[in-house]
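ESCALATION

Customer reports they have been waiting on this structure for their group meeting. Please prioritize. Original submission:
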Amino acid sequence: MTTALLSTADELHARARHGRRAVVMTMGALHEGHATLIRTAREIAGRDGEVVVTVFVNPLQFGAGEDLDRYPRTLEADLKLAEQAGADAVFAPSVDEVYPGGQPQVRISAGPMGERLEGAARPGHFDGVLTVVAKLLHLSRPDVALFGQKDAQQLALIRRMVRDLNFGVEIVGVPTVREADGLALSSRNRYLSPAERRTALALSRALFAGRDRHAAQEALRARAREVPSTHARAEALSAIGESRAAADAHAVATAAPGGPAAVRAAARQVLDEAGRVEPPLKLDYLALVDPSDFTEIGDGFTGEAVLAVAARVGTTRLIDNIPLTFGNLGAAS
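Update from on-call: job pushed to the front of the queue and completed.
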């Protein structure tokens, strides 16, 4: 396969289309995480479909003092990786092609959801993201577009935009790809010194600590639900030496300090420790949120949630998250 390099929408529109077109949007500096997105797009598009990778460093989503100028631009390497992963074309437009006549006067607003977490830390960021995603969806005209779950708030907002504004495209989220030591793959990882990278591992360790605490809680609650609180059952458990285990399970199931608060506490402990090492981790936020609107969940919450973290190590700002599912926390019957 030879991957075509295209720089204008006219070149992209001139390509004959057969089957589904799947688009992977990137800012370049491609790595294995992007390769996973491209391979997933290839599976979705099928042999008869087309995979297009967009490479565009969007100035609208960079705030004052952020790394627009030093953001890595590696188009030749990006084209090679995209080809190896199965892309049919790389669409790498200029700023003038995407924003003819200068920055657009009319933009898409991310609304209240875009003002939380990442939006609070980077005002206007998600307005810029949604504006360029809308532009690239119109320019590339895909049937399906794929985005990484590492940028969970971005993914949620894109899904909301597509639904609220009736875009005729399917949005697919692809799980985060990690290094062997747990660090989430990111183009910004290349900015980290060896010492900074060691500190940065606290982000994923914190998420995993929260996940493990949650898994332990859910396992004990499931056990409690399987153990009826009857005298006959208690006698049977006692006879085989399980009365203490049953009591512990019921205690955990009904204890107030568990749930989301315990998940946050387990993750926070790891991050606090990382703030005392050299070089230190400087936490922006740790949040356990409802992915439908990115508001913090309460202790009675059930359903899908996202445990998210953002922090700086040296001059590099990193984000990460993992999904969690909170089940029925009701008492055992």
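Sent to customer with the following note: Strands lie at 4-6, 21-26, 50-55, 89-91, 144-148, 170-174, 281-290, 295-296, 303-313, 316-326.
Escalation resolved.
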